[in-house]
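Appendix B. Raw example, untouched.
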Amino acid sequence: MRNLKSVLAVLALLLLSSLNFVKGQPPKRFDISTRIQFQVQTENSEIKFPVFQQGSLTLMIRATLFEGELTIELYDSKGEKQGSLFIPYHVLLTKPDSIEKPIPINEIVKKEISKKFDNPVKGEWVVKIIPKNAGGFLEINSSQNSQQ
């Protein structure tokens, strides 16, 4: 029993000392990915993500629309707009041989934007999603690299 207590005490000491070692070093890179699927949506929504270290922030936003249109706006933690992206859905196309009775062709609109910020404002950043009868997918990837 005494040996077990000694072993547990040594393990606890090693664990605490290793936590202090890790605690002193911030991560060099931190990634967040979000994927959203929506169907004929008109309600606005927000995605919030933390920016917590000096260095650089890279955002990549990919959108795929099956219908409607979509506006995406990016705001920093001070509420200042840092960018926007508008994705319109194109007019339905029809097959050339179907003039009398148009046959719609399924169409998919894809758009992608990537933006890098050096020394971004720390805090909670917001991606505002403003759909108008929109259906499709939205993927947001953020990557933070610390200065070393």
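End of appendix B.
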